[in-house]
Design brief:
Blueprint (H helix, E strand, L loop, with lengths): L1 H41 L6 H31 L2 H27 L1 H19 L6 H13 L15 H5 L31 H40 L6
Keywords: Disulfide bond, Membrane, Transmembrane, Transmembrane helix
Family: Belongs to the tetraspanin (TM4SF) family.
Protein name: Tetraspanin
Length: 244
Protein backbone atom coordinates (compact mmCIF):
# COMPACT_ATOMS: atom_id res chain seq x y z
CA UNK A 1 0.00 0.00 0.00
CA UNK A 2 2.90 2.31 0.81
CA UNK A 3 4.30 1.71 -2.65
CA UNK A 4 0.93 2.54 -4.18
CA UNK A 5 0.72 5.78 -2.18
CA UNK A 6 4.25 6.67 -3.22
CA UNK A 7 3.38 5.94 -6.85
CA UNK A 8 0.24 8.06 -6.62
CA UNK A 9 2.22 10.93 -5.12
CA UNK A 10 4.70 10.74 -7.99
CA UNK A 11 1.89 10.69 -10.55
CA UNK A 12 0.15 13.62 -8.86
CA UNK A 13 3.40 15.57 -8.82
CA UNK A 14 4.11 14.84 -12.50
CA UNK A 15 0.56 15.77 -13.52
CA UNK A 16 0.79 19.04 -11.56
CA UNK A 17 4.11 19.87 -13.23
CA UNK A 18 2.61 18.95 -16.59
CA UNK A 19 -0.31 21.31 -15.99
CA UNK A 20 2.09 24.15 -15.25
CA UNK A 21 3.66 23.57 -18.67
CA UNK A 22 0.16 23.22 -20.13
CA UNK A 23 -0.80 26.63 -18.73
CA UNK A 24 2.41 28.12 -20.12
CA UNK A 25 1.61 26.56 -23.50
CA UNK A 26 -1.86 28.11 -23.36
CA UNK A 27 -0.40 31.54 -22.67
CA UNK A 28 2.13 31.06 -25.49
CA UNK A 29 -0.63 30.02 -27.90
CA UNK A 30 -2.69 33.10 -27.06
CA UNK A 31 0.39 35.31 -27.48
CA UNK A 32 1.14 33.79 -30.90
CA UNK A 33 -2.50 34.28 -31.94
CA UNK A 34 -2.35 37.96 -30.99
CA UNK A 35 1.03 38.32 -32.72
CA UNK A 36 -0.25 36.69 -35.93
CA UNK A 37 -3.34 38.90 -35.95
CA UNK A 38 -1.36 42.12 -35.42
CA UNK A 39 1.28 41.12 -37.99
CA UNK A 40 -1.33 40.18 -40.59
CA UNK A 41 -3.12 43.51 -40.11
CA UNK A 42 -0.08 45.29 -41.57
CA UNK A 43 -0.62 43.54 -44.90
CA UNK A 44 -4.34 42.76 -44.69
CA UNK A 45 -5.01 44.44 -48.06
CA UNK A 46 -2.63 41.97 -49.73
CA UNK A 47 -3.92 38.80 -48.09
CA UNK A 48 -7.19 37.04 -47.39
CA UNK A 49 -7.86 38.98 -44.20
CA UNK A 50 -10.65 36.67 -43.10
CA UNK A 51 -8.43 33.58 -43.25
CA UNK A 52 -5.74 35.12 -41.08
CA UNK A 53 -8.16 36.62 -38.58
CA UNK A 54 -9.92 33.28 -38.28
CA UNK A 55 -6.62 31.45 -37.77
CA UNK A 56 -5.50 34.01 -35.18
CA UNK A 57 -8.84 33.87 -33.35
CA UNK A 58 -8.66 30.06 -33.25
CA UNK A 59 -5.19 30.27 -31.69
CA UNK A 60 -6.38 32.78 -29.08
CA UNK A 61 -9.45 30.67 -28.24
CA UNK A 62 -7.37 27.48 -28.14
CA UNK A 63 -4.91 29.10 -25.74
CA UNK A 64 -7.72 30.14 -23.41
CA UNK A 65 -9.27 26.66 -23.60
CA UNK A 66 -5.93 25.01 -22.82
CA UNK A 67 -5.60 27.16 -19.69
CA UNK A 68 -9.14 26.23 -18.56
CA UNK A 69 -8.45 22.54 -19.12
CA UNK A 70 -5.22 22.89 -17.15
CA UNK A 71 -7.31 24.22 -14.26
CA UNK A 72 -9.63 21.22 -14.49
CA UNK A 73 -6.57 18.95 -14.43
CA UNK A 74 -5.23 20.59 -11.27
CA UNK A 75 -8.61 20.25 -9.53
CA UNK A 76 -8.76 16.59 -10.53
CA UNK A 77 -5.29 15.96 -9.08
CA UNK A 78 -5.88 17.82 -5.81
CA UNK A 79 -9.28 16.20 -5.20
CA UNK A 80 -8.17 12.82 -6.60
CA UNK A 81 -11.51 12.75 -8.42
CA UNK A 82 -11.71 10.02 -11.05
CA UNK A 83 -14.57 11.64 -12.96
CA UNK A 84 -12.69 14.93 -13.24
CA UNK A 85 -9.66 12.99 -14.45
CA UNK A 86 -11.81 11.32 -17.10
CA UNK A 87 -13.25 14.69 -18.16
CA UNK A 88 -9.76 16.17 -18.26
CA UNK A 89 -8.41 13.29 -20.38
CA UNK A 90 -11.38 13.50 -22.75
CA UNK A 91 -11.02 17.27 -23.27
CA UNK A 92 -7.27 17.03 -23.85
CA UNK A 93 -7.80 14.20 -26.33
CA UNK A 94 -10.49 16.19 -28.19
CA UNK A 95 -8.18 19.20 -28.52
CA UNK A 96 -5.44 16.91 -29.80
CA UNK A 97 -7.75 15.48 -32.49
CA UNK A 98 -8.91 18.99 -33.50
CA UNK A 99 -5.29 20.14 -33.77
CA UNK A 100 -4.45 17.23 -36.06
CA UNK A 101 -7.50 17.96 -38.24
CA UNK A 102 -6.68 21.70 -38.38
CA UNK A 103 -3.06 20.96 -39.27
CA UNK A 104 -4.11 18.69 -42.14
CA UNK A 105 -6.53 21.34 -43.46
CA UNK A 106 -3.90 24.08 -43.23
CA UNK A 107 -1.36 21.93 -45.06
CA UNK A 108 -3.89 21.10 -47.78
CA UNK A 109 -4.68 24.81 -48.33
CA UNK A 110 -1.10 26.10 -48.28
CA UNK A 111 -0.72 26.34 -52.08
CA UNK A 112 -4.07 28.11 -52.42
CA UNK A 113 -3.03 30.70 -49.81
CA UNK A 114 0.33 31.28 -51.55
CA UNK A 115 -1.34 31.74 -54.95
CA UNK A 116 -3.80 34.25 -53.48
CA UNK A 117 -0.93 36.28 -52.08
CA UNK A 118 0.86 36.39 -55.44
CA UNK A 119 -2.32 37.46 -57.26
CA UNK A 120 -3.15 40.10 -54.64
CA UNK A 121 0.35 41.64 -54.72
CA UNK A 122 0.33 41.71 -58.53
CA UNK A 123 -3.09 43.39 -58.66
CA UNK A 124 -2.21 45.92 -55.96
CA UNK A 125 1.01 46.99 -57.70
CA UNK A 126 -0.32 46.94 -61.26
CA UNK A 127 -3.75 48.52 -60.75
CA UNK A 128 -4.27 49.93 -57.25
CA UNK A 129 -1.07 51.59 -56.05
CA UNK A 130 -1.24 55.38 -55.99
CA UNK A 131 -4.96 55.54 -56.81
CA UNK A 132 -6.89 58.04 -54.71
CA UNK A 133 -9.64 55.57 -53.81
CA UNK A 134 -7.21 52.71 -53.09
CA UNK A 135 -5.12 54.20 -50.28
CA UNK A 136 -5.18 51.02 -48.19
CA UNK A 137 -3.41 49.16 -51.00
CA UNK A 138 -0.85 51.95 -51.38
CA UNK A 139 -0.14 51.91 -47.64
CA UNK A 140 0.09 48.11 -47.57
CA UNK A 141 2.54 48.01 -50.50
CA UNK A 142 4.70 50.79 -49.02
CA UNK A 143 4.78 49.02 -45.65
CA UNK A 144 5.58 45.66 -47.26
CA UNK A 145 8.39 47.09 -49.40
CA UNK A 146 10.02 48.78 -46.42
CA UNK A 147 9.51 46.14 -43.73
CA UNK A 148 10.06 43.08 -45.94
CA UNK A 149 12.83 44.81 -47.93
CA UNK A 150 11.36 44.08 -51.35
CA UNK A 151 10.27 45.90 -54.51
CA UNK A 152 7.62 45.12 -57.11
CA UNK A 153 5.96 41.75 -57.66
CA UNK A 154 9.04 39.75 -58.69
CA UNK A 155 11.42 42.73 -59.07
CA UNK A 156 11.46 46.52 -59.34
CA UNK A 157 10.97 46.25 -63.12
CA UNK A 158 7.31 45.36 -62.53
CA UNK A 159 6.55 48.96 -61.61
CA UNK A 160 6.94 50.05 -65.26
CA UNK A 161 3.72 48.16 -66.05
CA UNK A 162 1.78 49.80 -63.23
CA UNK A 163 -0.91 52.47 -63.39
CA UNK A 164 1.19 54.50 -60.93
CA UNK A 165 4.17 54.64 -63.32
CA UNK A 166 2.05 55.42 -66.37
CA UNK A 167 0.54 58.44 -64.60
CA UNK A 168 3.89 59.65 -63.22
CA UNK A 169 6.45 61.92 -64.91
CA UNK A 170 8.71 58.84 -65.38
CA UNK A 171 11.50 60.44 -63.32
CA UNK A 172 11.19 57.62 -60.77
CA UNK A 173 11.11 54.02 -61.95
CA UNK A 174 9.91 52.74 -58.56
CA UNK A 175 8.24 54.30 -55.49
CA UNK A 176 10.51 55.63 -52.75
CA UNK A 177 9.38 52.80 -50.47
CA UNK A 178 11.59 50.52 -52.62
CA UNK A 179 14.67 52.38 -51.37
CA UNK A 180 16.97 50.84 -48.78
CA UNK A 181 17.46 54.34 -47.39
CA UNK A 182 14.40 56.49 -47.92
CA UNK A 183 15.21 60.08 -48.89
CA UNK A 184 13.65 62.49 -51.38
CA UNK A 185 14.43 61.26 -54.88
CA UNK A 186 16.15 58.11 -53.60
CA UNK A 187 14.61 56.01 -56.38
CA UNK A 188 16.02 58.13 -59.22
CA UNK A 189 18.80 56.37 -61.08
CA UNK A 190 20.51 54.64 -58.14
CA UNK A 191 19.82 50.92 -58.51
CA UNK A 192 22.19 49.98 -55.65
CA UNK A 193 19.77 51.68 -53.25
CA UNK A 194 16.76 49.67 -54.51
CA UNK A 195 15.64 46.38 -52.99
CA UNK A 196 16.04 43.54 -55.50
CA UNK A 197 13.74 40.84 -54.14
CA UNK A 198 10.11 40.84 -55.27
CA UNK A 199 7.37 41.40 -52.69
CA UNK A 200 5.38 38.36 -53.78
CA UNK A 201 8.16 36.01 -52.63
CA UNK A 202 8.95 38.15 -49.57
CA UNK A 203 5.32 38.12 -48.43
CA UNK A 204 5.08 34.37 -49.04
CA UNK A 205 8.20 33.87 -46.91
CA UNK A 206 6.65 36.08 -44.23
CA UNK A 207 3.49 33.96 -44.15
CA UNK A 208 5.48 30.70 -44.16
CA UNK A 209 7.59 31.89 -41.22
CA UNK A 210 4.44 32.63 -39.20
CA UNK A 211 3.01 29.23 -40.16
CA UNK A 212 6.25 27.58 -39.01
CA UNK A 213 5.98 29.29 -35.61
CA UNK A 214 2.36 28.19 -35.25
CA UNK A 215 3.25 24.66 -36.36
CA UNK A 216 6.15 24.41 -33.93
CA UNK A 217 4.01 25.48 -31.00
CA UNK A 218 1.29 23.08 -32.13
CA UNK A 219 3.73 20.15 -32.12
CA UNK A 220 4.99 21.12 -28.66
CA UNK A 221 1.46 21.32 -27.26
CA UNK A 222 0.54 18.00 -28.90
CA UNK A 223 3.46 16.27 -27.14
CA UNK A 224 2.38 17.79 -23.82
CA UNK A 225 -1.18 16.64 -24.42
CA UNK A 226 -0.14 13.03 -25.00
CA UNK A 227 1.92 13.07 -21.79
CA UNK A 228 -0.99 14.64 -19.91
CA UNK A 229 -3.43 11.94 -21.02
CA UNK A 230 -0.94 9.19 -20.08
CA UNK A 231 -0.37 10.67 -16.60
CA UNK A 232 -4.11 11.21 -16.05
CA UNK A 233 -4.98 7.63 -17.04
CA UNK A 234 -2.23 6.23 -14.80
CA UNK A 235 -3.50 8.30 -11.87
CA UNK A 236 -7.08 7.26 -12.66
CA UNK A 237 -6.06 3.60 -12.43
CA UNK A 238 -4.14 4.18 -9.20
CA UNK A 239 -6.94 5.92 -7.30
CA UNK A 240 -8.98 3.47 -5.23
CA UNK A 241 -12.60 2.86 -6.16
CA UNK A 242 -13.65 4.44 -2.87
CA UNK A 243 -12.69 7.80 -4.42
CA UNK A 244 -15.44 7.53 -7.05
Amino acid sequence: MAELNCGMKCLKFMLCVFNLFFWAAGIATMAVGIFVRVSANNYSALMEEGDFKTAANILIAAGALVMIIGGIGCCAVVKENKWLLLLYSFLVLMIFILEIASGIMAYAKRDKVINKIEDAVSKAITNDYGQEDKKRFTEAIDKAQQELMCCGVSSGADWKNSAWYKKSDKSESVPESCCKKMTDGCSKGNSSNIYQEGCSQALQDFVKSKMAVVGGIGVGIAILQILGVVFAICLFRSIGYEKI
